């Protein structure tokens, strides 16, 4: 390599060759801040615009589904006389008279259905049902799946073997087929049960809804159980857990510090992604007429009811269809964002 | 290898038996037999009918008779469509659903795999983002929405395609596209992420270092590895198209097994429900076994135990 | 064109990450004659692999050459089209990677993967390529070559796989073989075998080798010349004797102090180099080693040292050496 001729043109000061102090040396080392797992995750989540927009949409939909109906002038089962099949923002003849008389009539933003029920409130209630199904089902799946999975992983041996065989069998059972069957078969026994004292709440929630939950609880937890088990097994055998144990860390500390921080990211992500999948299934069942009971609407049953009038009243189909697609899309994208933010294995 | 296949088949038999048992007992939970709705029938006639179909015998006996008959492929007579056996109905209706589902599966693979590869290969570009958006929407929009949307646009508004039945080739377009939408999107995403994973592998660097062209390294070295996750998805995809056809057949009024199943449930046609469930479950389980075995054949790393 | 087989002049290479430009290589110059063995030593992230990969056009996304020239065997690498480059890769220059476990495609047989490169770069037909592949396996000391050709990578041990990688690399008798930490992932006993094999093959085939390693023991026994890299720069360059018996740069001295020696006195301790390497996203203005250097001076923090040459080969980039030389010259 050639000498750099410039080097000798530099004006060198004798002082330059004095030893540098420690402080001066340290001033050079620019370290990136080390941040905690959660802080780092939330920082990345906030930077993810798509996920933040989805979170915002979900919050808006939740406000409309859970809070707005309480203040809404119409109720989802109220049949307004003479207001059948109104187009969006249209008023019935009677309502026109009222307006002419100076009364204030709350507009039908989405029109009304063939029984004269305000469609906006029905879509809101439908969203409420769909969201409830999604969230409760995801919670049920989370609890059953993680308990089953961690028992299998910690017990090991033949207990694990038998438990995982059960999971294998349930996993290969075609789920939708059984869901259809179960939700059909459970309807009647639940109705009977609802008559018994102390079980009156069943008819409040609706037999179909409960049977949907039972179906999820029976079938859909296996994926979660497998995931939790494999995570725990992997962590149990990982070298840093062995290292922590060798350093004398207690089991409680290992579970808190290593197992939880490593699992929770994955658990949050899987649960979030479970919500849209449950909503998806519920809408499918409702569409086939196996979902919530009338007059309670769900987005799936609203769409199903609207099919026959598709030619004349297409908006009756498109509104619930759009809302359900929006909800599922938002949860999916939020779940993807959470995975990017909280799955440490995908860091950087 | 042989041992693995045997184990897999044994597990499949257990699963099928479990499905049959669950189905049988679930059906017996439902009060009000199939003849209750036909109010005109006198109690004596109901009794006679029940005796004819063996509904008056104790449950345990009925269970064993049913299982042993089912094992021989005899699901009994349909309770609603008098004079036809369940197997008969399945034999006439299933080919319709199978043809539809098969076309959807092929469409999903032929579209999803190449587009996923393209998206991964062009990662970070406009094409990648566009495909991502389409695929994400395809996963988020439920089947019935896609069906009705297609029906409204192409059937009702534009009147390009027939809205019901399967009379000619054109009438297949909408149901097949609607049925394939979800699996196509799913495969696209799966293929993209698996391809990205593979492209970052050391052996891809080796391929480049050997002087192979991008085409060869992509199609020879990357694709074979990247396609493995898609193979595992074929099982669930078949299940999806089979059950997805419930909705598609309902909307497009197609005389398939899915529609028949829904009809049977609403009509409480016990034997028909049980027969269809066991039949469809068996098909899905058998497909899963085949897919599993194919997977192990394609990936030499997996030792068959 | 350069008279050397490999002639890298003032190479600069950066990775353009979302977080900013990472200057992976800063003014790196290397040359190598036919049949010579050059060792590149340095810790992880010092840029030794990046240097070698850029020579083969294997720079990973989002890395980009931003300055300097690279000549290899009469080709100006900077100007080559992808198509021209492909004719060189695996043919005139080939590479062995660090991890033989992941460097072979798991779904193709060994035979397929060796024959592929032969079929690509020579006129041999399939039968001849198979015969050549068998010959290569024998050459790298694999027994039962006929049987191995039909096996999959996962059926072989790590040492065997690395031998297969060497066979692939040597298939077209390259002029230059790059070995990127070829023994790091292997057991110690296997390491020695693989190194021995490489030296043996070098004698037989007469190719030049660039040996990338962080193991000073490996370079000492194999290399003619050694480049010591730190934070994307070559801080010291010389013959093996220069580096081992007459190290000039503080970093080289530190490296040598940190390896165990047989002739060490009892109770003599190994001296680690304190501190961690700098963040290449925010490189300091001065010498990158300054924060860890025990002889750091004020100027080191401000400016990178110029090159100080000791003889035809041996040079460093260090203000200490520069200062001593200036003092010597002043005394004359």
Notable characteristics:
A: 348 residues; mainly alpha; MetI-like fold; 2 domains; C: 332 residues; alpha/beta; four-stranded antiparallel β-sheet
Topology (elements, then pairings):
The complex is a heterotrimer of chains A (348), B (305) and C (332).
Chain A: H1 22-28, H2 37-47, H3 49-71, H4 93-100, H5 119-155, H6 157-172, H7 175-195, H8 201-205, H9 207-219, H10 221-237, H11 239-246, H12 251-287, H13 299-306, H14 314-342
Helix pairs in contact in A: 2-14, 3-5, 3-14, 5-6, 5-9, 5-10, 5-12, 5-13, 5-14, 6-10, 7-9, 10-12, 12-13, 12-14, 13-14
Chain B: H1 2-29, H2 43-52, H3 59-71, H4 86-121, H5 126-140, H6 143-157, H7 170-199, H8 202-209, H9 214-226, H10 228-251, H11 257-266, H12 270-298
Helix pairs in contact in B: 1-3, 1-12, 4-5, 4-7, 4-10, 5-7, 6-7, 6-10, 7-9, 7-10, 8-9, 10-11, 10-12, 11-12
Chain C: E1 6-17, E2 20-32, E3 37-41, H1 48-56, E4 63-72, E5 75-76, H2 82-88, E6 93-96, H3 100-103, H4 110-121, H5 126-139, H6 145-149, H7 158-170, E7 176-180, H8 188-205, E8 208-213, H9 216-222, E9 225-230, E10 233-239, H10 240-245, H11 250-257, H12 298-302, E11 307-309, E12 315-317, H13 319-331
CA-atom Rg of chain C in angstroms: 21 Å
Strand order of the largest sheet of chain C: 6-7-8-3-9-10-12-11
What is the rounded Rg of chain A? 29 Å
Q: Biggest chain pair contact, residues each?
A: A-B, 43 and 47 residues
Given this structure, which CATH class of the largest domain in chain A is correct? Mainly Alpha
CATH architecture of the largest domain in chain A: Orthogonal Bundle
- Determine the number of helices of chain C (DSSP H or I, runs of at least 4 residues): 13
CATH topology of the largest domain in chain A: MetI-like fold
Label the structural class of chain A.
mainly alpha
CATH class of chain C: Alpha Beta
State the share of residues found in helices of chain C, binned by percent: 25-40%
- Helix share bin of chain A: 55-70%
Order of helices and strands of chain A: HHHHHHHHHHHHHH
**Backbone shape of chain A:** flat
The biggest sheet of chain C amounts to:
8 strands, mixed
Q: How would you state the average pLDDT of chain A, rounded?
A: 77
N-to-C SSE string of chain C, H for helix and E for strand:
EEEHEEHEHHHHHEHEHEEHHHEEH
Figure out the total of helices of chain A: 14
**Oligomerization state of this entry?**
heterotrimer
CATH-defined superfamily of the largest domain in chain A: MetI-like
The strand count of chain A comes to: 0
């Amino acid at each position: 390599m050639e000498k750099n001729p410039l080097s000798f043109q530099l004006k060198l000061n004798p002082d330059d060759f004095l030893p540098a102090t420690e402080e001066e040396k340290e001033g050079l080392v620019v370290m990136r801040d080390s941040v905690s797992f959660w802080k780092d995750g939330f920082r990345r989540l906030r930077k993810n615009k798509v996920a933040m927009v989805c979170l915002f949409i979900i919050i808006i939909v939740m406000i409309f589904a859970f809070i707005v109906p309480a203040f809404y002038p119409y109720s989802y089962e109220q049949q307004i006389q003479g207001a059948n099949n109104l187009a969006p923002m249209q008023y019935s003849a009677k309502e026109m008279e009222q307006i002419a008389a100076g009364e204030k009539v709350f507009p039908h933003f989405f029109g009304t259905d063939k029984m004269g029920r305000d469609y906006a409130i029905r879509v809101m209630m439908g969203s409420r049902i769909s969201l409830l199904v999604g969230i409760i089902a995801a919670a049920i799946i989370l609890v059953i799946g993680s308990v089953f999975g961690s028992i299998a992983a910690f017990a090991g041996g033949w207990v694990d073997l038998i438990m995982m065989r059960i999971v294998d069998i349930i996993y290969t059972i075609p789920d939708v087929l059984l869901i259809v069957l179960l939700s059909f078969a459970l309807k009647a026994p639940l109705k009977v049960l609802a008559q018994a004292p102390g079980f009156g709440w069943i008819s409040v929630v609706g037999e179909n809804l409960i049977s949907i939950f039972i179906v999820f609880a029976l079938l859909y937890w296996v994926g979660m159980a497998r995931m939790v088990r494999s995570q725990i097994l992997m962590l149990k055998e990982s070298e840093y857990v062995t290292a922590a144990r060798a350093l004398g860390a207690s089991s409680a500390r290992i579970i808190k510090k290593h197992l939880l921080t490593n699992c929770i990211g994955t658990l949050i992500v899987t649960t979030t992604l479970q919500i849209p999948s449950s909503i998806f299934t519920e809408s499918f069942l409702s569409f086939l007429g196996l979902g919530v009971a009338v007059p309670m609407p769900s987005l799936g049953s609203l769409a199903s009811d609207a099919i026959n009038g598709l030619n004349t009243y297409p908006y009756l189909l498109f509104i619930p269809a759009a809302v359900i697609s929006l909800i599922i899309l938002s949860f999916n994208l939020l779940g993807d964002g959470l995975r990017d933010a909280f799955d440490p294995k995908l860091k950087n | 290898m042989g041992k693995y296949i045997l184990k897999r088949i044994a597990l499949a038999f257990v699963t099928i038996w479990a499905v049959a048992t669950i189905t049988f007992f679930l059906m017996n939970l439902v009060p009000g037999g199939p003849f209750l709705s036909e109010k005109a029938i006198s109690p004596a006639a109901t009794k006679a009918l029940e005796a004819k179909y063996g509904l008056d015998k104790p449950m345990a006996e009925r269970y064993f008779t049913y299982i042993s008959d089912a094992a021989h492929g005899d699901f009994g007579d349909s309770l609603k469509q008098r004079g036809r056996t369940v197997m008969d109905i399945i034999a006439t209706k299933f080919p319709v659903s199978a043809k539809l589902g098969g076309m959807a599966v092929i469409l999903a693979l032929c579209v999803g795999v190449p587009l996923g590869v393209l998206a991964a290969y062009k990662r970070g570009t406009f094409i990648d983002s566009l495909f991502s958006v389409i695929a994400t929407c395809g996963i988020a929009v439920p089947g019935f929405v896609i069906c009705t949307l297609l029906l409204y646009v192409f059937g009702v508004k534009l009147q390009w395609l027939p809205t019901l039945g399967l009379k000619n080739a054109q009438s297949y377009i909408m149901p097949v596209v609607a049925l394939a939408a979800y699996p196509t999107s799913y495969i696209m995403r799966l293929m993209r992420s698996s391809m990205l994973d593979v492209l970052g592998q050391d052996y891809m660097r080796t391929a480049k270092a050997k002087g192979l062209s991008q085409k060869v390294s992509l199609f020879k070295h990357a694709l074979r590895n990247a396609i493995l996750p898609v193979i595992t998805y074929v099982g669930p995809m078949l299940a999806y198209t089979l059950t997805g056809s419930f909705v598609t057949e309902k909307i497009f009024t197609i005389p398939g097994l899915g529609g028949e199943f829904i009809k049977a449930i609403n009509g409480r046609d016990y034997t028909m429900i049980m027969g269809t469930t066991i039949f469809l479950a068996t098909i899905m389980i058998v497909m899963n076994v085949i897919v599993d075995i194919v997977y192990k054949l394609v990936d030499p790393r997996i030792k068959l135990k | 064109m350069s008279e050397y087989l490999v002639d890298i002049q003032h190479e600069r290479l950066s990775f353009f990450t979302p977080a900013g430009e990472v200057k992976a290589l800063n003014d790196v110059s290397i040359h190598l004659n036919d049949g010579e063995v050059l060792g590149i030593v340095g810790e992880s992230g010092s840029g030794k692999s990046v240097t070698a990969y850029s020579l083969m056009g294997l720079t990973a996304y989002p890395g980009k050459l931003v300055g300097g020239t690279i000549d290899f065997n009469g080709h100006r690498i900077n100007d080559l089209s992808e198509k021209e480059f492909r004719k060189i890769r695996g043919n005139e220059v080939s590479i062995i990677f660090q991890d033989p476990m992941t460097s072979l495609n798991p779904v193709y047989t060994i035979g397929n993967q060796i024959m592929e490169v032969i079929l690509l770069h020579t006129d041999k037909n399939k039968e001849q390529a198979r015969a050549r592949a068998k010959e290569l396996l024998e050459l790298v000391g694999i027994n039962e070559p006929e049987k191995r050709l039909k096996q999959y990578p996962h059926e072989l041990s790590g040492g065997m796989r690395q031998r297969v990688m060497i066979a692939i690399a040597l298939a077209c008798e390259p002029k230059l073989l790059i070995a990127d930490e070829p023994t790091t992932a292997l057991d110690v006993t296997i390491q020695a075998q693989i190194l021995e094999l490489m030296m043996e093959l070098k004698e037989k085939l007469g190719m030049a080798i660039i040996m990338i390693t962080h193991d000073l023991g490996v370079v000492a026994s194999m290399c003619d010349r050694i480049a010591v890299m730190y934070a994307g720069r070559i801080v010291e360059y010389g013959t093996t004797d220069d580096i081992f018996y007459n190290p000039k740069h503080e970093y080289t001295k530190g490296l040598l102090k940190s390896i165990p020696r047989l002739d060490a006195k009892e109770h003599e301790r190994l001296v680690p180099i304190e501190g961690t390497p700098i963040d290449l996203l925010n490189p300091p203005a001065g010498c990158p080693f300054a924060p860890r250097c025990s002889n750091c001076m004020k100027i080191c923090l401000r400016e990178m040292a110029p090159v100080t040459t000791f003889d035809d080969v041996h040079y460093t980039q260090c203000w200490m050496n520069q200062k001593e030389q200036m003092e010597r010259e002043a005394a004359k």
